[in-house]
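Issue 218. Parser rejects a valid record. Input:
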Amino acid sequence: MERKSWMVLENNPEVMNRLAAKLGLSSDLSFYDVWSLDEPELLAHIPRPALALLVILPRTPAWEKDRNTEDAEKGEYEGYGPEEPIIWFQQTIGNACGSIGFLHCAINGPTAQFIQSGSDLDKLRRDAIPLKMKERADMLYNSVPFEEAHKSCEQLGDTPPSNEDHMGQHFVAFVKVNGRLWELEGSRKGPLDRGALEDNEDVLSPKALDLGFKRVIRLEQEAGGKDLRFSCIALSHKA
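Output the parser choked on:
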């Protein structure tokens, strides 16, 4: 049976804030454009600590090789239950990487405290916790509220995207949970622990960026590539 496929979402605050409101994340939080990874004055508009990053990165040959190497010896992800530090979703819906990236940002770590009780997001999170990978993916695949929320955002953004515009690009979420930086993407073998962060380091701190987002950029640069098409937004407290 042909799997369902949606329209790619644009990675900008307007789209993800609408998705957050639709699913039930508190309006005390907001997404912000990240205009620079290095210049403090261009990051000053983002309240700190930043709770999550949602980025789009091109799947370049260098990153593809790195991904394959990392995933080669990994078995099927077996994490589930309340003791698991991360709630991770395998992606089985075509082009749903943006909304799944949003979920990874919204239901993990301290952000989960801002989920409105009884909301669709609350139910998705509670239903996901006890499920293993395949059952969790099926639950999300069959979630009508999740599909309706995604589709309500498809035409938002400065330039409503087509799927062709984002061929070969992937949404990746970075979150800090229990003092560790996690890289979350539904097309990988599972959640990726990228290393330890200090209490005063958030996902926009230099170390977190070096362990996560910038690591992928370096792979491309070190391979001599020049495909640096990326966008980045940060989830934080509303200013």
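Fixed in the parser; the record now loads. Confidence is low (pLDDT under 50) at residues 163-167.
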